[in-house]
Amino acid sequence: MKKISRKKFLVKSSVALGASTLLLNGCKDEGQKNISAPNIITNKKYRWRMVTTWPPNFPVLGEVCNRFAETLKIMSNGRLELKVFGGGELVPPLESFEAVISGAAEMYNAASYYWAGKAPASQFFASIPFGMNAQQMHAWILNGGGYELWRELYGALDLVPFICGNTGVQMGGWFNKEINNSKDLRGLKMRIPGLGGKVLERAGGAAVLVSGGELYTSLERGVIDATEWIGPYHDYLLGLHKIAKYYYSPGWHEPGSILENVVNKKAFEKLPKDLQKMIEMASHAMGMWSFHEFEAKNNEYLQKIRKESTAELRLFPQEVLDVLKEKTKEVLDEITSKDSMSAKVYQSFQDFSNKVGNWSKYSEKAYYNRISSHQ
Ligand code: CA
Questions:
Q1: Euclidean distance between CA atoms 238 and 8, whole angstroms
Q2: What is the C-alpha separation between 2 and 8, in angstroms, rounded?
Q3: Which residue among 73, 162, 356, 358 has its CA within the 20 to 30 Å range from the CA of 365?
């Protein structure tokens, strides 16, 4: 990645992250049973447009779109070429969903919780507070029935979804107020989108809407008391370490946010099978790249933050996390009681989460707690 200044990063952020803000691998055919494709493979060339919710060439999130387009071009020997449009270049970032439904663009890349107002169950395919981590989310979607439900939900809208990225466990955010117990959440003005924001409000806080470009000045001037973003790499580029007193962990609200590549179903069905498969495989492969790009860079930037910033690195007290977890249950109960598809998806999520959690106790958790010298 080319070096990017904070100012440049802020300008880019302001384009894409208007309302809410942010926020892999297999080869199964089962999920595509309902997708048709012409049987004869020809040399016909396809020229597609991809819209995104990210600024052009945005680190990791925009980069992955460019890499996806390049990969597809090489894999298809130029038969499928994708022109990537950053947020606002073809349509406003948060209109990507409608643009692909209408066919104004053939594909988009985003995080599915942006569409919670249009299809409430969509947000469960991004991340759920206190839910599964990246590895477990991928296992649920690829091998635990998640993809089938995701395709059922999006298929009804004439869309075909693919995993194309993950942020991994995010950070809890930058605070200018100490959080010593759950009472400190009362009245806390924090920029935190999606389900996490709803949970904070239940705990007495105020989830404030601030665009990416206004984040720095809002925190600096005290318009907000706290903000979450992603993790050390992106947070550093945004400069938040220069103006916050505390950097809290962990990101209880986004333990493994999935990023999605979504295709217009009619356009997808016009492609020969080999190109369809290339889209699926390139999405998964580039998704792996973005997940690991975050993983590879986060520690490097965490060390820079520790060195260059006076912000104190802290863990949320257990009692605070317990209260937020309780409020998460209330928020999820409310959503699933109002929307049957949300109930169906959440049931599958929860069943898989229980199963995989039993295994993690003896695998990841035991390894981290008792063996690894790296944690
Ligand atoms: Ca976030």
A1: 9
A2: 12
A3: 162
Q: Which of 132, 137, 111 has the alpha carbon at shortest distance from 193? A: 111
- Alpha-helical regions (H) of the chain: 6-16, 63-75, 96-102, 134-143, 146-155, 194-202, 215-220, 232-238, 265-270, 273-308, 318-338, 340-362, 364-370
pLDDT, tens digit (0-9, with 9 covering 90-100), for 265-279? 999 999 999 999 999
- Ligand 1 centroid to Cα of residue 227, in Å, is 9
Question: pLDDT, tens digit, for every residue of 35-47?
Answer: 677 666 678 999 9
Ligand 1 centre to CA of 22 (Å) is: 4
| All structural domains of the chain | 44-169+256-295 (3.40.190.170)
Pairing of strands 312-315, 226-227: unpaired
Q: Determine whether 303 is exposed, middle or buried from the number of CB atoms within 10 Å of its CB (0-12, 13-18, 19+).
A: exposed
Encode pLDDT of 147-183 as tens digits. Answer: 999 999 999 999 999 999 999 999 999 999 999 999 9
Q: Distance (Å, rounded) from C-alpha 251 to C-alpha 196?
A: 10
Ligand 1 centre distance from Cα of residue 228 (Å): 6
Among residues 213, 237, 358, 351, the alpha carbon closest in space to that of 304 is found at 237
Angle between helices 146-155 and 134-143 (to 10 degrees): 70
What pairs with residue 126 in β-bridges? Answer: none
Distance 335 CA to ligand 1 centre (A): 21
Cα–Cα distance between 62 and 4 in angstroms, integer? 13
- The answer to whether the CB of 207 falls within 8 A of the CB of 185 is no
* Ligand 1 midpoint to CA 21 (Å): 7
Strand 206-207 relative to strand 189-191, pairing: parallel
pLDDT digits (tens, 9 = 90+) for 298-316: 999 999 999 999 999 999 9
Distance CA 269, CA 276 (A): 8
185 vs 127: CA distance, rounded Å: 22
| CA count, 13 A, side-chain hemisphere, 60 | 27
